[in-house]
Structures are given as C-alpha cells and as structure tokens.
UniProtKB/TrEMBL annotation:
This protein's UniProt keywords: Cell membrane, Isomerase, Lipoprotein, Membrane, Palmitate, Rotamase, Signal
Lineage: Bacteria, Bacillati, Bacillota, Bacilli, Lactobacillales
PpiC domain: residues covered: 140-236
Underlying gene: prsA
InterPro entries from the UniProt entry: Foldase_PrsA, PPIase_dom_sf, PPIase_PpiC, PrsA_foldase, Trigger_fact/SurA_dom_sf
Provenance organism: Lacticaseibacillus mingshuiensis
Major site of localization recorded for this protein: membrane
Protein name: Foldase protein PrsA
Role, per record: Plays a major role in protein secretion by helping the post-translocational extracellular folding of several secreted proteins.
Protein localization: Cell membrane
Amino acid sequence: MKKWIAGLAGILLAVTLAGCSSGDSATVANMNGAKITKQEYYDEMKTSSVGGEATLRNMILAKALDQQYGKKVTTKQVTKQYNAVKKSYGTSFASALEQNGLTTKSFKEEIRTSLLSEVALKDLKKVTQKQLDTQWKSYEPKITVQHILVAKKAKAEDIIKLLAKDNTEKNFNALAKKYSTDTGTATSGGKIAAFDNTDTSLDSDFKTAAFKLKQGEYTTTPVKTTYGYHVIRSIKNPGKGKESDHTKELKEQLYTTWESDSTVMTSVMKQVLEKANVSIKDKDLSDVLDVYTSTSSSTASN
C-alpha cells in the first residue's frame, strides 16, 4: 500500500489503459457480481497519489470490504471520525488534505475503508484466552494524573515538601501554575489526558511511576525523565483488579495493536479477497493481488 516512486504512475496508467478495451464501460476487475470499469479506474487514477497497481488494489479492497461489511459502518461513524481529525488540525486542515492529495470526499472514503478494515479484523481474527493472558501481564487501566515539571531535582524536592503539608488537588493546581515548566499543562494544574499501558507518547519511567500511585497519592521522590524532574499526583486510578473484569479493554488493546501490524492485516485482507472471488480482466494487471498470496490466512484465524 505504500507510495510508489514518483513518475511510475504515468507509465503504469499508460500500460493499463492500453490493455483495456476501448469502451469506457470495459471491465478491469469482477467480484461477486460487482465490477470496476476502465472509466472508474481512470477517474481514480487522476486523483490518486500512488501508482497504477496500488490504485487498483485499493479499489478492489474497498469494494470487497464494502460488499462484505458495508452495513456495519454508518455515514454517522465516518462523519464523526472526519470531524475529529478536522478539529485536531484546526485551520491547517485544508492544507493538510491538499498536501496528501486528498479531498473531503476521498478522505471520507479512506476513513470508511479504514473502519471497514477494523470490522473485518474483528470478524476474521478472534482473540484467544492465551493472548488475553499475555496482554494482562502488561495491562494497566486508564488513569488520570497531574504533574509538575522542573529542571532541577532540588526544586522538585521542595515542591514535594509543600505537598506534604497540603496534598489537595487545589494546592497541586496552584503549585503547577507557579512552578511547572510544561507550558502545555501548567495552566490546567498539570493535568494530563487519561492514558493506559498502550500509550507511546509518555516517557516509560513517567508511566511506571504514575501507575504505582493510588488515587490521591503523589510521588515522594522526583521522577527523572529526559525532560527534567517530575512530581506526579494521581487524580483517578481505578486499580487493575481481576483479568476477567477487563476482557473488553484487553481485546480492544489487542485489536488496536493488530491494526498496526502489516502481517496481520495483510492476512485479513487476503481472506476478504478470497471471499470476494476477484477476477482481474486486464492481463497487464493480473498479478495486482499477488502481494497477498504469500501470506498464510492462519495468521488471522489463530
């Protein structure tokens, strides 16, 4: 699925169109009663940022996923995710779309295909008890903490002494606003968005110290990271509890990990394509789906 080297797209398009019949309705690929025509392929190529074969492969996958799981992804879901991304980019959203060769329509189509892929993954790869047990070993529930970041260890120790006299969220908020060098959180009392063990944005030492705190507790020694020294206070920590109480969260963590695993997703897409019964009518593109033939479907079913 990765971008092809710039310049190949035009060559591939020329080869492709030469292999198709002259009619705009000529079929490039068939699948379970549906088809991709020469005109549809050509129209997609005009706005695609990837090569000819990758474009057709994406079109086939999108159509196969829609055939098999289309009813399980709603327009409302697509719009919700689209709006979330748009909000996160703010005023730079339009330029971000343009830089990635996307329009509102094509971006929503990509979101829909992504959501359909998630549905396919959960349908075709089931979580085993062994996998749940392994995930449980590193599992930590979502917690919320606040922190104060300073450059010197001595300053962090001074702040800890102040907390020993008044360990309240209100006092911590005041101390964070006064001393924290983390400008992104200082004005909000050092509060950080809730995170669990799958978070990759926070320093590992920071997370380890935070997970050890019970609700309302704070670190009694400074926590050193590459950013400086932290004083961390737990706002909400529900506790790890029993594995059986967190089956849903464990499954979601596993599926989130698998969504980023190319081997797993390639295997899932292979099963989707096998079920779609795809037939490539253009001889120059007959091997367009070969990328999936070497992947055993057992990866997705085990």
